[in-house]
Specification:
single chain, about 300 residues, alpha/beta, 8-stranded mixed beta sheet, 8 strands, globular
Length: about 300
């Protein structure tokens, strides 16, 4: 199996979780896990992105600060991120060196049974799980168990209907198909932006599948900040989600428009307004818990034990 994290620069919890997992796998406590599977782990594929976000990504933080994240976050533009930057084949030398190195690492071990790319969302109603669409009939039972675990922990699942946009097809409440580079390209072509469309290469999920076999590919999406009310009306678009995005954009503009002597005061005001509106940070240990639950569910499905 393959695990990778850090493909997007402003999503720190996946890399943190995989560092913990490597520590577990390398010691006696990982004996049973090593018997279950051969693990190929890339804990962080984007060290430059981590450096660009280091101001707000406090090491070992229990939760992230909303105002610090909003003011200091840095993210690659669509078509420039590492997740959709893997080589199209042996002769594609235009991919970033990080992508080419990961692809060679996987190519030496393929075919895989399971590949999981650990991602996050800025704001959402709760955990969100993306599943290889062709595997959904085999994954459905595991999904029901995951949904129960999320709700028993006091969280709502993030649930939106995107109608296939960028390859996102709703499969069940809180579960969606993973995105696809062809659908991504078509989305930007439909927007009249062929330059951005042309920059999309295969995702890590597509790259691993292209190496052979029929691997189950999964994407974890854990929110840094929970926005209540999202999902009550699925859309598209979800009206509550759109209102939250407008609020977040407004707070962003206010902080960036403040002078140097007023930024701290504006950040404190935004922090208070966001909390008053119901936004709350999702604890990092809970994000990790559900990432691990998703990985274990995938192992159970490909191993025939679910």
């Amino acid at each position: 199996m393959s695990l990778v994290a850090g493909c997007h620069a402003d999503e720190p919890v996946g890399p943190r979780f995989l560092q913990h997992l490597i520590g577990l796998l390398s010691g006696p406590a990982g004996d049973e896990l090593r018997r279950r599977a051969t693990w190929f782990v890339i804990p962080h594929l984007n060290p430059d992105g981590a450096a660009a976000n280091s101001t707000w990504q406090t090491p070992d933080a229990e939760r992230y600060d909303f105002a610090e994240w909003l003011y200091h976050r840095a993210r690659e533009l669509p078509g420039d991120d590492i997740e959709f930057g893997f080589p199209r084949g042996d002769h594609d030398r235009g991919a970033r060196p990080e992508n080419r190195t990961a692809w060679e690492f996987w190519r030496g071990a393929a075919p895989f049974d399971l590949h999981v790319s650990l991602h996050g969302m800025s704001v959402a109603a709760g955990p969100y799980f993306l599943v290889e669409r062709s595997w959904w009939p085999r994954f459905r039972s595991a999904a029901r168990g995951l949904a129960r675990e999320v709700r028993q922990a006091g969280y709502e699942l993030h649930d939106v209907e995107r109608g296939g946009e960028k390859g996102f097809h709703r499969l069940a409440p809180g579960f969606c198909s993973r995105p696809d580079s062809r659908a991504m390209r078509q989305h930007f072509l439909d927007l009249g932006d062929p330059d951005t469309a042309a920059r999309f290469r295969p995702s890590s999920m597509e790259a691993v599948r292209a190496l052979g076999g029929d691997p189950l590919t999964l994407v974890t999406e854990m929110p840094l900040f929970i926005t209540p009310g999202v999902g009550a009306e699925l859309g598209p678009p979800d009206p509550v989600l759109m209102r939250w995005r407008e609020r977040v954009a407004g707070w962003d503009v206010r902080m960036r428009g403040a002078g140097d002597d007023a930024v701290a005061r504006e950040m404190a005001a935004v922090r208070g307004e966001a909390g008053g509106a119901g936004l709350r940070a999702m604890p990092v240990p809970d994000q990790m818990r559900f990432q691990w639950a998703f990985i274990q569910a995938g192992l159970g499905v490909v191993g025939g034990t679910d």
